[in-house]
Specification:
Elements (H helix, E strand, L loop, with lengths): L21 E5 L4 H12 L3 E6 L2 H18 L7 E5 L5 H15 L4 E3 L15 H30 L2 E6 L11 H21 L4 E8 L5 H4 L3 H10 L8 H11 L11 E4 L3 H4 L9
Parallel strand pairs: 1-2, 1-4, 2-3, 4-5, 5-6, 6-7
């Protein structure tokens, strides 16, 4: 699954729908991040992908450049990579420095990087909760603030997306992570109101059970249960999230801001679709 760009057989996006846009995607080397990068490349954007693993980023970039060459929409399309741990402020500053030096601006910021672990609530220590919140909230805010104040507010335009969770009402053994992602929903709503005067739109995307290597890491039994929870009866594909994010950046998505969009096969509407944990 992770060996390809996870593109749909036929995209609904025109090849020039995002032509000339400069996009920064965190966690862009795998899964939803890579699929989002592919959707932006296929619609004509320049893309910077960031992450902590250089080899993973370079492998993804090679695929993205091949996609750009095959699409041949804009002959000067660029794909650049940046190794960065966004939990560290100095590395956030260096990342934004690098993207601005490469592109001259940032039109779209896709906050896709995140992480968590499964554990019963009673086993989550304060240290574990803080570690999850540091990556999913603190680091995301730091990068968002840096990009907004240095690139988007001066340009008086931009799109910022956050990555939440579905189901949105809470997930057993993920209370630390789902509460962090819920904070991003509220952040998207608040920022959309404050920064709309600068022409900046902010949207939270809430994927459900998406077929990525991260999901596979929870084990075959857990993944089978996750599949059964979805009303549509299947896991989502990464490109089904990536194409939505790329659509939001087009003129057709220009009136969408301050909301959360679930991409989950009906999971949020149904809930967990399983009995609660028993004693």
């Amino acid at each position: 699954m992770e060996g390809n760009l996870m593109m749909p057989a036929a995209s609904v996006l025109r090849g020039d729908a995002n032509a000339g846009a400069h996009v920064l995607i965190t966690g862009g080397g795998t899964g939803i991040g890579k699929a989002t990068a592919a959707a932006f490349i296929a619609s004509g954007a320049h893309v910077a992908i960031a992450g902590r693993r250089e080899q993973v980023l370079e492998a993804a970039a090679e695929e993205l450049r091949a996609l750009a060459a095959a699409a041949d929409v804009t002959k000067d399309q660029r794909v650049v990579t940046f190794v960065a741990d966004i939990r560290e402020h100095d590395e956030v500053v260096a990342l934004v420095d690098g993207v601005l030096a490469a592109f001259g601006g940032i039109d779209v910021l896709v906050n896709n990087a995140g992480g968590q672990f499964a554990a019963p609530a009673e086993d989550i220590a304060l240290k574990g909760l803080r570690a999850v919140h540091r990556l999913n909230i603190d680091a995301t805010w730091d990068l968002t603030h840096e990009v907004a104040t240095r690139a988007m507010i001066p340009a008086k335009s931009g799109l910022i997306t956050f990555t939440g969770f579905s189901p949105r009402r809470g997930i057993p053994e993920m209370v630390h992570a789902s509460s962090a992602r819920a904070a991003l929903e509220n952040l998207a709503s608040g920022l959309s109101m404050e920064w709309s005067r600068y022409g900046i739109r902010v949207v939270c995307i809430a994927p459900g059970n998406i077929d990525t290597e991260g999901l596979a890491g929870y084990g075959e039994e857990a993944v089978s249960q996750m599949r059964r929870e979805v009303p549509l009866g299947r896991l989502g594909a990464p490109h089904e999230v990536g194409e939505l994010v790329a659509f939001l950046a087009t003129p057709a998505g220009a009136y969408i801001t301050g909301t959360t969009i679930a991409v989950d096969g009906g999971l949020d509407a149904w809930g967990q679709g399983a009995p609660p944990p028993q004693a």
